[in-house]
Design brief:
Blueprint lengths: L3 E8 L3 E3 L14 H8 L6 H7 L8 E7 H8 L11 E5 L11 E4 L3 H10 L4 E6 L1 H6 L4 E9 L7 E2 L9 E9 L5 E8 L1
């Protein structure tokens, strides 16, 4: 069975973005990027893959789940199809039509859809964000891969924007870089 993996960047104080959705506070350079590009190339938007010379290869995932606000980060700069090598699902109760034929809009019952996707054959499913969608789909998250950045911002959009059940995590792997960046891989113990 496919797994849902919440692969995300966050601050030490647990935020994935500022309250306005911006995330320009994350360091944009460091030794960890080579590892991330090598291990998770499909999570780099296609326009950046080409610019950075990253091969379009699906190593971990073949589907991505995004909330509307996460999707709109690219849409606001003209990127309608950010991950063409992945099956893309955007969860929104307000978008009336998909801006791109490659984007499947989901307006109701996200948990049921994800349960069906998990039963399909294929690679794992990347939960890209945001915090509200992660809280809604928490029962379906099998693993969390946290890119913990050595920065604090004090307020913003948390990892989970909504109440979830207290849940233990099992550290499956970790890598700590000299610049303070940590890649933490957890199994969720539902």
């Amino acid at each position: 069975m496919r797994k849902v993996k919440y692969y995300l960047a966050c601050t030490v104080d647990g935020f994935i973005a500022r309250e306005n959705g911006s995330f320009n506070f994350f360091p944009m350079e460091g030794e960890h990027f080579a590892d991330l590009f090598d291990s998770f190339p499909e999570t780099i938007p296609a326009n950046l893959q080409e610019a950075l010379g990253i091969p379009a290869e699906n190593k971990q995932f073949d589907a991505v789940l995004m909330g509307r606000k996460t999707y709109e980060v690219g849409l606001n700069v003209g990127v309608t199809n950010p991950y063409p090598s992945l099956k893309q699902y955007v969860f929104s109760r307000t978008m009336e039509a998909s801006p791109d034929e490659n984007i499947q809009l989901v307006s109701d019952n996200p948990v049921a859809l994800v349960q069906e996707l998990k039963k399909e054959s294929g690679k794992d499913i990347w939960l890209c964000g945001g915090g509200a969608l992660a809280a809604t789909l928490f029962s379906e998250i099998d693993e969390m891969i946290v890119k913990l950045n050595p920065v604090v911002i004090g307020a913003g959009i948390p990892l989970f924007s909504g109440a979830i059940e207290p849940t233990n995590l099992e550290l499956a792997d970790r890598k700590i870089y000299s610049n303070g960046f940590m890649l933490l891989h957890y199994r969720v113990k539902h």
